[in-house]
Amino acid sequence: MFKRLLNLFDKLRPIETxxxxxxxxxxxxxxxxxxxxxxxxxxxxxxxxAELETSKYRIIAIDLLGCGLSPKxxxxxxxxxxxxxxxxxxxxxxxxxRPFKIVGHSMGSIIAAKYCxxxxxxIKEVFLLSLPIYFKDNKNVNFSHKRTDFYLKxxxxxxxxxxxxxxxxxxVRNILRIKDGINIDExxxxxxxxxxxxTIIKQNTFDDISNLKLPVHIIFGALDEFLVQENVYKLDxxxxxxxxxxxxxxxxxxxxxxxxxxxxINKSY
Length: 269
Prior knowledge:
alpha/beta; Rossmann fold; globular
């Protein structure tokens, strides 16, 4: 009964627009929409924006649902479908006329892939950075399966340890030496923990990508500490998927990572 009431409330809940942290403007320019990772904000993209020409592109960076200054609905499940609903409402408000390019980082790449599957006519190309793709139903006990199992169990543990996660999120941010990253507090905890469980752990990203016909660029660092490379390369069998592995790069969007991504985006135009 309680679950049915929650589902009913979920259907009746108004969909608000997300916070657009950065919009370089220019409705008639080729548009790039950027989606950051879990626990982050639109500021993730500052280093990439510095590498792209705002005179050439309209660049839009959004705070995802539950992050930054975007809505943080308490009863929301923060599934990938929830994220996409709010993203779609925001993109409609931005009045992007022509098909645009979408760039996602980490969890943002999971959301981007789902958006592309649901609304392929709106997208020209998709760029998935540091894609955390996991296969929960892999029955082969091999290295990639063991790593996937480790990550999923670790994420489940983190999603249940509110005080511990909040306490150490700032330490992780300092260790990774990034200006924008895992920074969880009381206000953002619900969105973080539920997104971790219902978007990252319960993902269906392989199926989403396998159903796409548009160009898909997957870019990741060879030192990515959250990525199972064997899982990523399973997508290499699709003709529309291009995979780029960058040496000396980890999970975060560093200036060197951003420069390489900018070069790939510029070549695609």
